[in-house]
Structure formats: structure tokens, C-alpha cells
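Submission sheet (multi-component)
Chains listed below:
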Amino acid sequence: MCLVFALIHLVPGDPVEVMLGESAQPADKEALREALGLNQPVHLQLLDYLARLVRLDLGTSIYSRRPILDILLERIPATIELGIAALWVATFLALPLGILAAMHRNTLLDFGAMGFALVGVSIPNFWMGPMLILVGALWLGWFPVSGREGFMSLVLPALTLGTAMAAILSRMIRSALLEVITEEFIRTARAKGLTEWRVIAHHGLRNALLPVITLLGLQLGALLGGAIITETVFSWPGIGLLVVEAIQRRDYPVVQATVLFISLSYVLVNLLTDLLYAWIDPRVRIQKGP
Amino acid sequence: MRMWAPLGLVLLWASMALLGFVVPLAPEHIDLSKILVPGGAEEWLGYDDLGRPILDRLIMGARTSFFVAFAVVGLSLCVGTMIGTFGAFMGGWVDHVLVRIIDVFLAFPGILLAIALAGVMGPGIDNVVIALSAVGWVGYARLSRAQVLTVKERDHIHAAIAIGTKPLRIMVRHLIPLVSAPLIVEASFGIAGAVIAEAGLSFLGLGVQPPAASWGSMIREGTRYMLVAPHLVITPGVAIMAVVLAINLFGDWLRDWLDVKDQTRLG
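Outcome: structure written.
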């Protein structure tokens, strides 16, 4: 929280200067500084900011003059919708890829799946997006180019964000499965004559999912970063687009509040992942602390 | 030899970056009669929305991404390694404070912090380097700290302390060389990350400013004319993809060759 504050306030460059332009009158600059509280000492500004934060008062946007909390609340659903859709796409792509690669290790199938994953990691969102628009919206004409109107408009952004995640996720699933497969209970399961499918699905995957879920929580940061770019490509009215717009409009209170919000939700999700981890894996609950 | 193809691509990238200084290019030359002309035998890679040659701009973009990537990784590798090694070697409250600082930085999604920093400092290529380095050093600090903790109790370190070697000399001569292999592997993936990050920031309009060229800003400008001239977007995208893929493959090879355990791949 303080880092965000420091970031905005200690970085060289005067927001007032930027907002009013070079030719502004000194008196006007002083008035704006007064209005924003920027003429106060930095530690007083910080205290003031924290005090208002406790009351959920994020301030008002310099650009639209609306309370930032309202703006945030109206943008959040779109990002959550996109995030969940992307997560679905990623899971649907990555699970079969990772499992197939692990089951047929060092075969053509494995190299194919992992090669696909590597290509997926190397394609940036801001290129994948336009390419999907080109194919899906312009050539095939199946989906709208951008915006957020109905289910069809969700498909392309979710694919953009989802494939990038799927690439990382399938590598994780593969290596986690490979680690589990050497365990003795897998040999037991095979020895008692279960089909390979049951061995993998019931005994292998369940154990392999634990590290994957933890890593998935950490990957959320990458997802959020990707969301900023994906939302910009598709004009998807979520949090990410809000940050970019606010930066372009030099709307510092909005930048500050949005960055703070995204960071907090990132920390919160990682906390939830830890709890989820304990819920899924009884061994974590029994061992107390590392 | 699985390293040659990626290495060749990386060298091509490097030579494109350096070529820009030698070969007379006209990346900002506007030829209105050639607006949006697609690539062909005569036109090489074609022309953009202002009639500027895309090949020339691609080479200038290679220079941008090359220098930004190496500046960012070089800077964050040096700073991060020094901080991490220092913390682990000193131990005690110094280490505690540094770990706290690292934790605070890790609590933020890196790219978001870079976007916010670049946004607040204003666009520009040096600000991109600063923003990405400010985010990038943390990974190297954490990695070098963990590595130094495992080797600092070795006999030769105790011997060096016993004969009164200065701490700085111990760190630079005896500790850092021992832990450099995983750091080099991490740095090679870091270059791929920096290329994407630079292009991403430029795509958002926070990187190089027009008329200078970056692969990210070329995509940004190209998306407006995608319907009539898709080659504006396709060409720089293929360039980014090829370079990043090559660096990732090279990093994979380097990791196996140096026999480093997989730790933070693609993190």
C-alpha cells in the first residue's frame, strides 16, 4: 500500500505540471495543488490517504470527477467475467495436453504438446489478440471485433488470455504428473490391475493438482498483467482498460486506486490458494507450519 | 545440436540490432505513394500507414528491443545479485530487512508495477528500462540469496574469513562465482521476458515514442489498419515470437548444459 503511494509521489515529475500543461499560470498551478492536497508534506499526505482508505474513500477521479469507488465497482464484473472465462479455456486446453504429454513421455506426442506450449508462451497477448480478431472477426466474421456485448464478444478475449495461460499450465501439469507417477502408490494402483486411465485420473492427477493449484495462484499476477493488455486490445471495459485509460489521462488518483486494488486482490487470491491447498490436501493441515 | 537454431536466431536478432548503425536505413522516410503497400519482391516487407518501409522499421525495432532487454537484464542482474548476496552473507537484521523488501515487491504482480511505474514516470525508452529493472531485480535477489545461503558455510569461505579477507572481496571473488550458473539461466529467460515486456509497454503507448520504432508500437499502430493491411501487424509479431521462442529454447538448452535444477521457469 505504502509502495503504491511512494510510487506515485516520489517518482520525479510533477502531476500538476503534466495536467495543466507547460503554459499554465503559476496561480492556477497553486490552486490545483491546493485542491489535491499536494502542497502538504509527504507524510501528512500519506496519513491522510490511509485514513480515507480505511473509510473506503478512494478519492475522486480528476478526469471524470466521479468517486473512484463507483468507477471501480462498475469495471470489476467485466474483468472477473473475462478472468473466469480465460481460466476455463486454459484448463480445457492444458489438462488434456499436460496429461497426454506426461503419459507418453519423450514421444512425438510429448514433444508436440510441449512445443505447442513453448510457442504459446512466446506469443505475446498483444499479438495473439489482433491475430484472433483478424481470423475470427474479420475473415470468418463469427465474433464481434471488440467491446462487451453478449457472450460472443467474450470468446476472443477469453481465447487470447486463456491460451497464454494454457501454455504455462500444461507444462506445470506435465512436470507435476511426471513427479507423481514415480511414487509407489501409482505402482500399487497399476499392480492391482486398474486401467491406465483410472491410474492417471484417480491416483496421479489428484496428487499432481496440488502443486499446480499453488503455482496457478502465483500465475494470477501474469494473468492480471495479461488482462491489462488483452482488455486494451479488445476494448473490454474492465479494470485493466481502466488503468491504461487513467495513465493516458494522467488521472493519478485512479491509477493509484486501481493498482492498489489489483495488488490487494492478487495478495488475497494467493492467501485463498494457500487455504485451498490445506483444504484439498489433508497432509498440509496435519503438519503445522514449515 | 539443438542449440544452433535458437542461437542462430538470437545472433540474427543481435546483428539486426547492430546493423542499424552501419547500413543506411530510412525508417522515418515517408513515401505517400506507397502507403499500406504489402510486401513483395520489390517492396521487401511492404510499407506502413505513412508509407514508411517496414523492413527498416523492423530493424530499428530490433535495436530497441535488444538494447532494452540487455540493459534491463544487466541492471537487474547486477543489482539483484549484489543485494541478495549481501543479505545472505551478512545475515541478521540486514537479511531480515532485505527479505521484507523483497516480499513487498513480490506481493505485486510485476508487469502491473512496471506499467504503473512507466505510466507515472511518463513514456520514454529510458523510463521503460528503469521501470522493468525496478521490477526485475527482485527475482535475482531472491535466487542469489537462496543460493548463497547453501554455499556460505563451505570451508573456503570460512578460510577466507579467517585470513581476514574483506566482505566485499569474499562476495565478489568467492561467493558470486559459485552461484552464477542458476543466475545465468534465470537471466537468459529474463531476456525473453524483457523483450515481451518492452513490446507490451510500447504496445500500451508507454514505451518508445513516435517516430522511433519498436515492435510493440508497430503492432499498436498496425492494429488500426488491420482490415486493409494485416501485414503491418503480422510482421513485427512474427519477429517478437521468433526471438522470444529462440531465447526460451536457448535458455532450456543452457539450463540442461549447466545442469541447473528447474526452479522458476516461466515465472
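Remark: The CA atoms of residues 88 and 158 of chain B lie 15 Å apart.
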